[in-house]
Amino acid sequence: MEVTTIEYIYQLFLTCQQKITTDTRKLELGSIFFALKGDNFNANGFAQNAIEGGCSYAIVDDESIANGNTLLYVKDVLESLQLLAKYHRSLLKIPVIGITGSNGKTTNKELIHAVLSKKYNTYATKGNLNNHIGVPLTLLAITSKHEMAIVEMGANHQGEIELLSNISDPDFGLITNIGKAHLEGFGGEEGVKKGKSELYKHIKLKNGKLFINADDETLLNLSGDIEKITYGLKDEYDVYGTLITGSEFVDFKWNTKFISLENVEIIKTNLFGHYNFINVLCAACIGHYFEVETKDINQALTEYMPEMNRSQVKKTDNNTLILDAYNANPTSMHLAIDHFIKQNFKSKLVLLSDMLELGDYSKLEHEKILNQISTHDTINAIFVGVLFYEHKNKFPQYQFFMNGEDASVYLKKQNFKQYNILIKGSRGGKLEKLVEYL
């Protein structure tokens, strides 16, 4: 059977009002179903179910079930989804900002979205749809009504950002930072650096521009001669600022190049952790570049409320929780603990779970975190997961549990009250499930 062309699928995509689905549990009437495959599933077998459930078309790569009518055959469904997104992107005439980095991708995306939305109809990656499937779905959700787009790109191995950049073709690039994340897949810190900088290479080929933390020497060195819009601590940058200390939240001032901060208002945010200062400054820089009024930038940053367990403060009947448990790597965990330790809280507890995908670096990096905490004997600590657990005998002053279920039994009995509790760990730790016991 003849392979269906991307151009033909695109016309169907427009006819279907840009409605795409990849999950038969979440079918949308009149949409196109893409029968993706994975290690443990093959959606070709559900294509007919999708049609019967209300989809107008299904894209399949099993020739035996295709009928050339509602079930359309392609050689590779995933590749077709990506090519469709790339084709759609090529027709968009709006600025696209591509974001990647080891830490803070989603927080930066949400802050920038909040700022740009004060002036533009802005579309940004929903949730965490930032991989080889999520990025195409993000692009295909952009309509003619949108004036700006922010595309988050995640990766755990080299070549992935190159692929996602090729699909999304951003005009502007932002690498938040380069740290110790996905060390196993990238092959160490140098591999992370090489993988993340694939975004810079794409921007250079396109003659685009970078938004860059000019205080970060690693990023500056990688950026070479690409045109830059800079932000950081020095007044020579396009946008610069200073952190106002005294609060556990990010309070700061910002202004443009060589203009004094003296009479500038202090912006008070709801973001816990001074490590988030550079993220709000980045959002201010991007807003300023795209000519969002200063008062609107400040309002957006003041009103922004973190969610999805990212730098989120939650008060329960018994305690104050700092929920930063969406993900973790050695860099982000160290920064979160360091900031927490410095706060003048009466009773402190850290609840941490394993950092994943570190490969040969895993044992050393978990021990470093334990050593960091052990230098402060006023802090109580609970560790969840097999990677922390293997250090149990070296740190008898702390509680270690193999899994969340065992930790929940302990927490039920303890009944912690009037504590400030930092909750941090990789997604696999599912620490948010322990919140009900705190």
Structural commentary:
The chain is of the alpha/beta class and 438 residues long. It has three domains: 6-77, MurE/MurF, N-terminal domain (Udp-n-acetylmuramoylalanyl-d-glutamate--2,6- Diaminopimelate Ligase, Chain: A, domain 1); 92-303, Mur-like, catalytic domain (UDP-N-acetylmuramoyl-L-alanine:D-glutamate ligase, 3-Layer(aba) Sandwich), CATH 3.40.1190.10; 312-437, Mur ligase, C-terminal domain (Protein-Tyrosine Phosphatase, Chain A, Alpha-Beta Complex). 34% of the residues lie in helices and 20% in strands. The protein contains 16 helices and 19 strands. Strands 6-7-5-8-9-10-11-12-13 form a nine-stranded mixed sheet, sandwiched between helices. α3 packs parallel to α5, α4 (105-116) packs across α12 and α6 runs parallel beside α9 (198-206). It is globular. The termini are far apart.
Please write out the topology.
Elements: H1 6-15, E1 20-21, E2 32-34, H2 47-52, E3 57-60, E4 71-73, H3 77-91, E5 96-100, H4 105-116, E6 122-124, H5 134-140, E7 148-152, H6 160-168, E8 172-175, H7 183-186, H8 189-196, H9 198-206, E9 209-213, H10 217-223, E10 227-232, E11 239-244, E12 249-256, E13 267-272, H11 277-289, H12 294-303, E14 312-315, E15 320-324, H13 330-342, E16 348-353, H14 362-374, E17 379-384, H15 386-389, E18 399-401, H16 404-414, E19 420-424
Parallel strand pairs: 1-2, 2-3, 3-4, 5-7, 5-8, 6-7, 8-9, 9-10, 10-11, 15-19, 16-17, 16-19, 17-18
Antiparallel strand pairs: 11-12, 12-13, 14-15
Helix pairs in contact: 1-3, 3-5, 4-11, 4-12, 6-9, 11-12, 13-14
